[in-house]
Amino acid sequence: MELRRYLMVIRQRWKLVAFVMLLTTFAAGFLVWNEEPVYEASGTYVVRAQGETSDDAVRATDTLNRGVEINSTYARVARSDVVKQRAREVLASNGISTSGLGISSEVIPGTNIIRITVSGGDPEAVAAYASAVGEQTAAFLLESGELFNLQELDTPDVPNSPEPSTSSLTVALGLVFGAAGGAMLAFVAHYLSEEPDRASLNIRDSMTGAYSDDYFRLRLRQEMSRCDIPMDLDEIDKAARDAEPSKKAKSGNGKSGNGKQPRQRTGPGFTVAMIEIQPDDPNLNGSAPGPEPLELRDAAQALLARLRLQDVLAYVGDGTFAVICPDLPARGTRRILTDWNLYLGSRFDEETTLRSLRASISTCQCDAMGVVGDRDALKAACDI
User: Fold this and answer.
1) pTM of the full structure
2) Of 253, 232, 258, 254, which is closest to residue 379 (Cα–Cα)?
3) ∠ at Cα 312 (309, 314), nearest 5°?
4) What is the residue-wise DSSP string for 45-79?
5) What is the average per-residue pLDDT within 275-301?
């Protein structure tokens, strides 16, 4: 039931959802359209001992083979501000700008090889910058007196084409987030539209203990909206006529005279009942006073004990109650009300002047196919 209610809110406010979806999708497309192509150039360098024949070089090589921290340290040196500044100065002297270029360095797992990668919008600049960073890293380690240095393996080449674009993914994410955001705004708008009703809503009738007419109107609107029943009273009759099966003669194959299958109901949506209580004394011919407040309270409490938790019993004044039974057909509702009416008729006690009462009951069943039963009951409920 809750899922249907959510879908109903989205269907009612689909224009808001569509607007947010289009807005985010176009925004993502605009960002992708103005994106510049990104080129990448990478160079690899092996970490090796400075000496070749000394015992220190042999020990250093053994230490290097066991020391992952050394490789990680040199990879961090390659992207340090000192090295990057030196590389920028070298390229600036050659008239190459490094503006907007990004640099990363990493150790290839299981090796003593460091990969230096530069990305940016100029293919020649990224290759030159990657090469300059590698050279300046080696120079810095040599000046620092380190036992190890970098030896170039793969020279950074000028890339021929930009990196694959993620434009399709960006637009798809914009569409998805737009749909989610639009649905969220639709729920918020729906909640805020009902907030004034909630703020001024008087939930309980103090005299009978049933719900108030304000709460009944709110719940009736919700149930009618859930089942696509129009709030306009003039449209209720049209919806009822559309829900009635065709009265034309059926042909031999079970179809109606026009060759179409008669419309079938989809199951119970809700049943609304209007109940008027009067003293049960035929000799008074309607001249007896109406039910007393205590009698109405006793009748309401007796009916509440028979209804389900999700049912709504409201007192709407002048000895009249209204009932909403969600997902219960009319026959089930009438069964409950008939049992309750028998109880009212058995109330009699001369010592306490307890009078018997009788209830005049009219019911109307409503679902997504329209209304069935006493349509005046639904009209009366809408007029509350």
Assistant:
1) 0.45
2) 232
3) 135
4) EEEEES-SSSHHHHHHHHHHHH-HHHHHHHHHHHT
5) 78
